[in-house]
Predict the structure.
Amino acid sequence: MTTLQATALEKEIDKQIEEKENEFMKEILRGCEDTDSTEVLCAKMIRNAIGISIKLSVGTTLDMLINFGIVEPHDEEQLRKNIISVVK
């Protein structure tokens, strides 16, 4: 990766973080209860932050791969199949 590409990628990530800051704050606190101990709160927040990081990384990577024509996105029907599961 060239310096220019790295700089452009960093700028895109910064933009996404800024645009979704409120969502990220809510997501970091997801599942946290007032009755949780400090240790439990920290563990939950770390777990949530890791999830946010993974989603942001994978999303950015997939966007780049799609934009470069390396991969093709699934069509809407396939995406719905991936989301919906049959109840047994």
